[in-house]
């Protein structure tokens, strides 16, 4: 599974970091989300999917 954050949509709400704190982090300059890697390890899969579903801006794109 792969994941990306759409930088134009992300508003820095931080819900993704609450759902998958080992995978998403906030950029220092603006607080917007970034991922540690586009490749999602199996042990993070459910947390990343939850993060994508909980994003109010629909800024997290997940693909298989």
UniProtKB/TrEMBL annotation:
SUPFAM superfamilies (alphabetical): 4Fe-4S ferredoxins
Cofactor(s) the record lists: [3Fe-4S] cluster
Organism the protein comes from: Candidatus Phosphoribacter hodrii
InterPro entries: Fe-S_cluster_ET (IPR051269)
Keywords of this entry: 3Fe-4S, Electron transport, Iron, Iron-sulfur, Metal-binding, Transport
Keyword Ribonucleoprotein on entry: no
Gene Ontology terms for molecular function: 3 iron, 4 sulfur cluster binding; metal ion binding
Protein name per UniProt: Ferredoxin
Pfam families in the record: Fer4_15
């Amino acid at each position: 599974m792969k994941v990306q954050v759409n930088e134009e949509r992300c508003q820095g709400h931080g819900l993704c970091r609450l759902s998958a704190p080992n995978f998403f982090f906030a950029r220092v300059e603006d607080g917007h989300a970034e991922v540690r890697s586009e490749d999602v390890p199996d042990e993070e899969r459910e947390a990343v999917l939850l993060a994508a579903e909980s994003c109010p801006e629909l800024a997290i794109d997940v693909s298989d």
